[in-house]
Amino acid sequence: MLTIDSLRVSVGGKEILKGLTLDVPAGEVHAVMGPNGAGKSTLGYAIAGRENYEAAAGDIRLGGESLMHLGPDERSAKGVFLSFQHPLEIPGVATMTFLRTALNAQKKARGEDEVSAADFLRIIREKAKALGLSDDKLKRPFNVGFSGGERKRLEILQMSLFEPKLSVLDETDSGLDIDALKQVAEGVNALRAPDRAMLVITHYQRLLDYLKPDAVHILADGRIVKSGGPELAEELEETGYEAFTSEAA
Amino acid sequence: MSVDRNLTPAEESLSVLFEKSFAGEPLRASAIEAFRHRGLPTKRVEDWKWTDLRGTLREALEPAPANDDDAPARTLFADLAGPEILIENGRARLAGSYVGSGFSVVANGGDVDAPGRDGAVALLNRAQATDGVTIRIDRGAKLEQPIVVRRRASTDGAVHVRSKVRVGAGAEATIIEIDEVETGGAFINLYTDVEIEAGATLRRYVAERLDEGAVLADILAADIDARGVFEQAVLTAGARLVRRETHIDLAGAGAACRLASAVLAGQKQHADLTSVVRHIAPGCETRQQHRAVLADAARGVFQGKIKVERDAQKTDGRMAAHALLLSDTAEANAKPELEIYADDVECAHGATVGALDADALFYMRSRGLSEREAQALLIDAFLAEAFEMITDEDVRAGFERLAASLREGGGA
């Protein structure tokens, strides 16, 4: 589903990803773990197509199709979703309006029928309820007055709404208490499907306890330095990243 | 101020009284003399430092001729019910007067008796005004429909309109002013004198559709008595030069003014919103929100002053002016000012200039919105605080639609 091939990305003149190669087959959940500064968030931004995170070399493909020359909105319509580490607030833009505009923009780009206001309301309420987000919150401007946990839930709600082929979860566990973590993990697990792939970027193992990844990759100094099964995450928890970062250097 | 220089062709042409009959009127004659002495304002005049009227308006101007052709139906606020008073090329199309329930509108022939303000542009208006309307709202009358004053300029030339609004005690009225300028060779000079009696409310909403070559100067001077309320909203896309000045005297205790303005300008358009609110009596309130969205090489000027006189204790004044630059060549100039002589007051002002939030744009695009759609949502959100001050919901919706069409039209 997702294939990243020798990807090099510089940000502000500094090379962050230095030839990263990664493959996430359909139906699988892969974790990317790594120390601070390894390039984890850069990887997420590069996949989503953020300006100034363009690749100097290499390729990112989704279902065999290169994403390299597509803008973030086009990638989104192709089925890429990034759950942000720090979801921002957008004052003055109503949450419901934004989500419906976004959903219909994706559908329109794919040549699908748009969702009516009434249908949208029904769908969004159902999804919000499952994630423990109140109707009242959805009436507010986007993320304004939301706690850190509520912002993360709103990210997962969007993932569930857009039904992406590839979900990239960037530090979705950060800032969550244990109850919120469970709720978010349930939301993510509910989306696991044979035709979808997920890439979970995280610093700690705890989210992985709930998500049970098929594979774990260690990212250090802009490269995948080791790949393995779920046991690799446990190993990391004991040894720390140091062994791998020195290996990379 | 005395100017020691030659008059431009525009100044020469403007300082000849347009109609022979005007020469017999001493007030007009003295006003034209004073104008001739000063000339049009230059950037050296402090409150014109960012808007160069003299430099912009150089060519000689003829007075715009009377035009009796049928005007096409208006496109702005087309679905709004209520009487429409048309002023075409500076002449009111009224058979004498229009009398409605609780109000009257009279063509005033350019009523210049009230001295008005003494700036060069106001003096010029006083000398040359061909016509205007005097609107009287009866005491205690609550008008159910807005009065639409539609000013149209269909020919090149200079147009001077001088109007009066009198709102009787306890009355409530809405006036919508629409400026339509069809040609780029038009210079429009508007002056409106307003008196709001005790406990009365006047809402003034100004929208426009101007040829990009037009030059428009508009001055409103309002005197508000105790507990009176003046609410104003202006939406402009600018033109070669647009300047709308608002001068408010909060003269009676507990009076209030709410001023909202929004600029959506692109190309090389210039829009200047200048206001001075004087708190003269105690316990008065000012709320002001200005927003400018500037694309291409557009320029937006905001000058807002709240002056609190010695007796105006318990003044409550707040002013915010924010500009959004959509290009490297757009320019915003802002001068928010508080001048306070009373000691027990609460006043605050803030001004910012910035670009669209790149993080927010990326976030929105990553959710599927095109760059254009994302910008549109952010711009609408930026303007919202200004439009929220409009208490008439139909008018607010109209302003939002108009802003959206300006945004879509590439003007901004």
Could you explain how this protein is built, in words?
The complex is a heterodimer of chains A (249) and B (412). Chain A is an alpha/beta fold. Chain A is built from ten helices and twelve strands. Chain A has helices at residues 40-48, 72-78, 95-109, 117-130, 135-138, 148-162, 178-190, 206-211, 231-239, 242-248, and strands at 2-11, 14-24, 29-33, 55-62, 65-66, 80-83, 90-94, 141-142, 166-170, 197-202, 215-220, 223-228. In chain A, α2 crosses α3 (95-109) and α6 packs parallel to α7. Chain A is globular and about 55 Å long. The two termini of chain A are 30 Å apart. The relative contact order of chain A is 0.19. With 412 residues, chain B is of the alpha/beta class. Chain B is 18% helix and 41% strand. Chain B is built from seven helices and 20 strands. Chain B has a ten-stranded mixed beta sheet with strand order 2-1-6-8-10-12-14-16-18-20, with helices on one face. A ten-stranded mixed beta sheet of chain B has the order 3-4-5-7-9-11-13-15-17-19. In chain B, a hairpin with a 2-residue loop joins β1 and β2. Chain B is globular and about 70 Å long. Classes of the chains: A alpha/beta (249), B alpha/beta (412). Chains A and B meet through α2, β7 and α3 of A and α5 and α6 of B.
Brief overview:
By secondary structure, chain A is an alpha/beta fold. Chain A has helices at 40-48, 72-78, 95-109, 117-130, 135-138, 148-162, 178-190, 206-211, 231-239, 242-248, and strands at residues 2-11, 14-24, 29-33, 55-62, 65-66, 80-83, 90-94, 141-142, 166-170, 197-202, 215-220, 223-228. In chain A, 40% of the residues lie in helices and 28% in strands.
